[in-house]
Design brief:
- It is built from eight helices and seven strands, in the order H-E-H-E-H-E-E-H-E-H-H-E-H-H-E.
- By secondary structure, it is α/β, with parallel strands linked by helices.
- The protein has one domain (5-117, 148-197): Rossmann fold (3-Layer(aba) Sandwich).
- The chain has a seven-stranded mixed sheet, with helices on both faces.
- Strand 4, helix 4 and strand 5 (105-113) form a beta-alpha-beta unit.
- The longest helix is centred in the middle third of the chain and has 11 residues, at 94-104.
- It starts with a helix and ends in a 12-residue tail after the last strand.
Length: 210
């Protein structure tokens, strides 16, 4: 089965033989692909029982848990990468979970719908209503999304948390990328993908007398 384009991009960001934690892993597609194609080991965290059953059927190590409870079961730097696709916007405290991702993993990878997309801007400006779009199909009263953000919002949060963005790309809901998206990602990108890490600590060495 062909891998979805956004998951294929994430796969390219993950080094062969890495140890990976996938938060909200769904049916385990990404982890199964990483294991088969890149000899990756790791675990998925998932709350949906049907998805957990599919993970087990696919041979993916999965743990039943609620991401809002944090990652306290895992030690510092237990993983090379911690991945979370299309779940950042449904987390109660995404800032705290980002820090937890970088506590237990050396790098983090997230994807989320871009609330700065031009369709969302037009809906708010001309209609005065919360937008619905291909990336955000639910109405405001029945959506799981509680912390929508734009690319600029996310990057401002990273700066505040001393997080260094290593790679960024945007795609549409069909998981394709265009020149317009690369030129103005915060306007034309529907789904954002980021790879990041904690900013390296700058060591200040005392001056040595001659």
């Amino acid at each position: 089965m062909k891998l979805r384009t956004d998951l294929a991009l994430i796969s390219e960001w993950i080094a062969e033989g890495s140890h990976v934690l996938d938060l909200g892993c769904g049916d385990g597609t990404l982890l199964a692909h990483l294991h088969n194609a890149r000899q990756v080991t790791g675990y998925g965290l998932e709350i949906d029982d049907d998805n957990i059953a599919q993970c087990i059927q696919a041979g993916v190590n999965v743990i039943h848990t609620d991401l809002n409870q944090g990652l306290s079961d895992f030690n510092d730097e237990s993983f090379d990468y911690v991945v979370m696709t299309q779940a950042l916007q449904i987390i109660h405290r995404p800032d705290l979970l980002l820090m937890e991702m970088l506590r237990v993993g050396r790098q983090g990878i997230v994807t989320f719908p871009n609330f700065g997309h031009w369709r969302a801007r037009l809906s708010l400006f001309f209609g005065g209503v919360m937008p619905t779009s291909r990336a955000l199909p639910s109405e405001w009263y029945n959506t799981e999304n509680i912390h929508l953000c734009s690319l600029r919002d996310f990057e401002k949060l990273c700066e505040m948390l001393d997080i260094e963005v290593l790679q960024r790309t945007v795609v549409d809901t069909k998981h394709h990328s265009t020149g317009l998206m690369r030129f103005m990602p915060n306007v034309f990108g529907e789904i954002a993908l980021y790879r990041f890490r904690s900013k390296p600590v700058k060591r200040i060495y005392p001056k040595q007398s001659l």
